[in-house]
Amino acid sequence: MSNYKRICKKIAQLSPDIEVTEERGCIVLRGEVDDWATAVKAGQAAVDKKKYLGVINDIKTKGFIPRPHLPEMQDSSLDGLSPDVLIVGGGITGCSIARELSRYKLSTLLVEKGSDVAVGASGANGGVVHVGINFSKNSQKHYYNIRGNRMYAALSKQLDVPFEQKGQVMLCCKPWERIPVWLLQQNAKLLGIPGVRYLKRKQLEQHEPHLPDFVIGGMYMPIGGITNPYEMTVALAENAVHNGVTLSLNTAVLSMQTSDGHITSVKTNRGTLYPKLVINAAGVYADRIAEMAGDRTFTIHPRRGTDIITDKKAGYMVKTSMGKSPFSILPYQSANKPKGIIARVRFFINTLTSSSHTKGVGLIHSVHGNMLIGPNAVETPDREDTETRREEVESIIKMQQHLADDLKFSDIIAYFTGVRAATYEEDFVVRKGVFTDNILQAAGIQSPGVTAAPAIAVDICKWAVEYLGKENPVQNNNEFDPERHTPPRLAQMDDDERDALIRKNPDYGIIVCRCEEVSRGEIIDALNSPVCVPTIDGIKRRLRPGMGRCQGGFCGPLVTQIIAEHHRIPASAVKKSSAGSVITYGETKGAAQ
Amino acid sequence: MKEMKELTCIICPNGCTLTVTGDGDNIRVSGSKCVRGEKFAVAEVTNPMRTICSTVRTAYKDAPVLPVRVSAEIPKEKIFDVIRELNKIIITEPVACGGTVIENVLGLGVDIIATSDILKFKEM
Amino acid sequence: MKRVDVIVIGGGPAGLAAAIAAKREGARVLLIEREARLGGILKQCIHDGFGVVRFGEQLTGPEYAQRFITEFDNENIEALTLTFVSKIEKTEDEFRLSAVNREGVVRLAGKSLVLATGCRERTAKQVFIHGTRPAGVFTAGAAQNYINILGQMPTKKCVILGSGDIGLIMARRLTLEGAQVLGVYEAKPTPSGLSRNIYQCLDDYDIPLHLSKSVTRVFGRDRLNAVEICSVDDEMRPIQGTEEIIDCDALILSVGLIPENELAESLGVKMDPLTKGPVCDKNMMTSVEGVFTCGNALHVNDLVDYVSESGEYAGRNAAKYTHAERNEISINAGSGLLYLVPQRLDLNASDLKAILYFRSRKVLGKCALVANVDGKEVFRKRYSFLRPPEMERLECDFGPLGLTNHSRVVFEIEEAPQ
Fold it and tell me: How many Å from the N-terminal Cα to the C-terminal Cα in chain B?
């Protein structure tokens, strides 16, 4: 039976209302089903990486109408512009690309529909810089992850973003687990991942002092690291802008005009643009952008994940990032473990070969000293479903409590949900345009997107320069400054340094956020930065007021006042994030009338 | 009309639960531990009085509102009328804690007074 | 480096009282306050009801604070405002502080410390409110700050979660400023705040109080537009099927206060999980020699009058502090008490008179507080009722009891036989 027929058969079993065709090298699904889960299963059943470029899943779900969240504002501030490059999307991928491109004398414009950079998945993940031990050798995930991982230490230093490389640990509970560990070790060698080795408990404790009792050892992977993903995104954006890139927030791409496989114009809510080249880094909407450009060969099926943040006091429970190995069975699970040798072997092979996207990391030590727990993974039709759910948070905690005995519900200070931009092939789509000549795709960026972004940017930039160089050779930007000069963070300085700075600027001595010790001067610096986002969340993302124990209870009114004064707007005009996120309705004694 | 009303005394932190029965000249209060509580209960069923505290707007940018209170109790039914009067005010001169903001508000025989020194040392 | 005898951290009612008391004992005192003005949280508590016990008057928060600020100024005590303590170190014989203000980094040293650092509010995530993350979720204190300090209106139509005093006060405040308060929801079966506040803040304005109900979810992408209310069981867990959606634009949270003790913990001060504040003796000294605690940092009070009292004790004893051998025993809270302070008694102290503050765990009618030493009853005080929101104060003299360092002292609450 041909691949096509096999796929048709599988899908017919799911629903009779799905039509399957082959178009432009892709497999296309259309129709309407009762629930999203069926649509996803159909998409997954249609995957055949050898035969097709990708799955185009346009199956509709009854009763669900997707409603992208678009910015309120409409103006013509960008109307008529013709930049060399238009980057769609201000996540870590888009901002990495922007920074790479700023090494060249090109007019680059990055547009982001949110009120800040990193408001999508880039701002809602655990910040793990992955090892990539379970990626397949031929995947783009592996290719870009291993290169990105190598770049992180130097990049973080240039951009002044915190980075720690304390390794990643996969925990084992029984001696037989050394066999699959050995297999993974061989795979690691094939993939070119250095330093992977099994450590007995005593040696492992040097890296992870608080191991649960049942752990006898584990696989230690030294190149695992941790960053602050939204700080990194902001840093990349600021450095890009510093080096000449234009950034337009609250700007959404609404449609594109194409002619003969070439994008001629791009319509946004702020005017129509005429870029020479478009780069698609639009996260959960990357397939929509690709569709507008006539170059779609994939479909995004959103998959949300929730992470939990604990108080820094619980941060001691993990020093690296650790999770149980996919094949080990923890004591609390032993009632359900497969019985009999054959079942167990099948179970273990399954866990080794199945894709890792449903397994969360477990416990992560953040760069600020908190412990992050999670994430889980839930398919959702809503691309912007960032709600958290009680049952999910409870089940994440209960599961991870087996790895951190001291963990209490009262240690939790926050939780958040991000949505992964997953394709059905569960791999990145980083390529030149197939049907459209002036587009580059940096799509389907789910985990390990944070790690891979700098490496993806290198390739995208290379192809961009190649394409644009066809007409006239692209010149280097001799003023490119790879270093981002962040304003000072006083709480981390020693007393003398801090004292000297305050004497020059007394605002550095007025502490506004007392949970994280952030001064008025630093907030004003953020408001004066190249990517100024004068909102409560914008300041929170850059400096942390609102992320500490009091979650903005004390500093909220103060930060509101500082933003209002700095921007000479009334306090009621200061927003939490987007234009609609009003904080106060105006002065008292006026609001009621 | 013999109605029984249960209320909480607000005179002191004890917050005694008081029961009031009867009306006119024949009001009986039970549950109070002191005379003030009894008086309060009687007032509650005949002519309830309250103190209210709020803020008034100022013209000072770094002190946008000034906390104020009534200098003595007002009838409970007049609360929102007094609030409406307060809301018309914009303070343009420094006022100290205890200073009068409105004299004899609504002819009720009480003043609106400032309760904070936040404007005391201000210049316009 | 500026050297004094007593450094008071916090210029609210506890710290002000402590500084004044320490000065009157003849100590050189320095008070550090992180805001621009003294008075602490009282600056935004513009309602009255303060000072009934201490002054026999019903004062507003700012007026109560002003009484102490005037005394403070009359005593000529030095205060560093807009100053934030970032580090404290204990050496052999003193405490060294690094503080930050507009002048730079200030280094200070003192023989004893009074930590009058108050408390913070419990947040939405700490009570597991889920859903989206819109603007419009405020803790009651933050909403109070917006209204009473910034003169800004945070809501037009809101729901209040938590019947603690600050939630009740805000229900009235918001109503007086023209907002519609749809209701106050309380997860426990009994209200958390003072009964007189239920009466004058809710009953007066016909604001309904719903018990055994909680908010589980918020809705709204940019600004809150609805909340989900659920009935809850005895363990405050939502009961499935009881969900109702209420349209509103804000959720005001009054779900508890948590004593602020980061500085105390950095010094290794031992904490009491029942109070969430330091373990202290009757002189308000913590487990670390020379570190004193008072006010809401020690345990959450309901009357500021007692906050001032504890501040006075802490300040006086901090001024008189000299290093001496301690011989401490525990004063234990039985299961009927939510907590009691002080938790320790130093048998070497010059006298064994103490002021005990405690809260009952349950709402009780006729009952008694009973003190047992080694299982034998030594003291009994009858109460006609006890309620958790209403903190009790009791003067005790442990002197005549002949306690030794093997004695086991337990305070328990006995319900009267039916």
Answer: 58
Exposure string over C70-103, b if 16+ CB within 10 A, otherwise e: ebbeeeebebbebbbbbebebeeebbebbbbbbe
The tokens of B53 are what?
Answer: 């505290």
Q: How many residues can be counted in chain C?
A: 418
Sorted by sequence, the CB contacts under 8 Å of residue A176 that are 6+ apart come out as none
C229 contacts C216 by C-beta, under 8 angstroms: yes
- The residue length of chain A stands at 593
Spatial separation of the C-alpha atoms in residues A242 and A16, rounded to whole Å: 55
> A44: burial class by Cβ within 10 Å (0-12, 13-18, 19+)?
middle
**Which of C205, C203, C217 lies closest to C179, judged by CA?**
C205
The label of the residue with tokens 């031990």 reads A133
Domains of chain B from N-terminus onward: 3-47 (no CATH), 53-114 (3.10.530.10)
What is the per-residue pLDDT across C360-416, written as a single tens digit (0 to 9) for each? 999 899 999 999 999 999 999 999 889 888 899 999 999 999 999 899 999 999 998
Name the band, by pLDDT with cuts 50, 70 and 90, for residue A430.
Answer: very high
Are C14 and C280 in contact, with CB atoms under 8 Å apart?
no
* Amino acid identity, position A309: I
Confidence of residue A105 (pLDDT cuts 50, 70, 90): very high
Distance, in Å, from the CA atom of A252 to the CA atom of A292, rounded to the nearest integer, reads 13
d(CA A559, CA A552) in angstroms, rounded, equals 9
Whether the CB of A394 is below 8 Å from some CB of chain B: the reply is: no
What does pTM read for this prediction?
A: 0.92
Distances (CA, A) of A232 to A10, A174, A200, A236, C332: 43, 39, 35, 6, 51
Provide the β-strand partners of residue C258.
C120
Whether the CB-CB separation of C334 and C274 falls below 8 Å is answered with no
Residue A338 has a pLDDT of 64
Least Cα separation, residue B49 to chain C (angstroms)? 11
Those of residues 63-82 in B touching chain A at CB distance below 8 A are 64-65
Residue C43 and residue C65 in contact, taking contact as beta carbons nearer than 8 Å:
yes
Task: Work out the burial of residue A565: count CB atoms within 10 Å of its CB; fewer than 13 is exposed, 13-18 middle, 19 or more buried.
Answer: middle
Query: Would you say the C-alpha torsion A16, A18, A21, A25 has a positive or negative sign?
Result: negative
DSSP string, A81-94: ---SEEEE--SHHH
Mean pLDDT of C228-236: 94
Interface contact C100-A509, CB threshold 8 A:
yes
In angstroms, the separation between the Cα of residue A351 and the nearest Cα of chain C is 32
Cα distance from N-terminal residue to C-terminal residue, chain A: 74
The residues near A516 (Cβ < 8 Å, ≥ 6 apart) are A491, A543, A544, A545, A547, A548
| Mutation target among C43, C47, C73 for the B interface, most CBs of B within 10 A | C47
Give the three-state DSSP class for C33. Answer: coil
Burial of residue A99 (CB within 10 Å: 0-12, 13-18, 19+) is buried
Q: Show residues of chain A in contact with B86, CB under 8 Å.
A: 589
C141 neighbourhood in chain A, CB within 8 Å: 553
Tokens of C102: 């507009």
Backbone angles phi, psi at C216, to 5 degrees: -105, -30
Q: Taking all residues of chain A, what is their mean pLDDT, rounded to a whole number?
A: 91
> Do residues B97 and B118 touch, judged by C-beta distance below 8 A?
no
Residues of C in contact with B91 (CB under 8 A): none
- State whether residue A568 sits within 8 Å of chain B by CB: no
- C-alpha distances in Å from residue B86, one per residue of B67, B97, C149, C201: 11, 17, 16, 20
Q: Is B65 on the interface with C (CB under 8 A)?
A: yes
Give C326's pLDDT tier (boundaries 50, 70, 90).
confident
A33 contacts A13 by C-beta, under 8 angstroms:
no
Q: Could you identify the residue written with the tokens 């009473």? A: C148
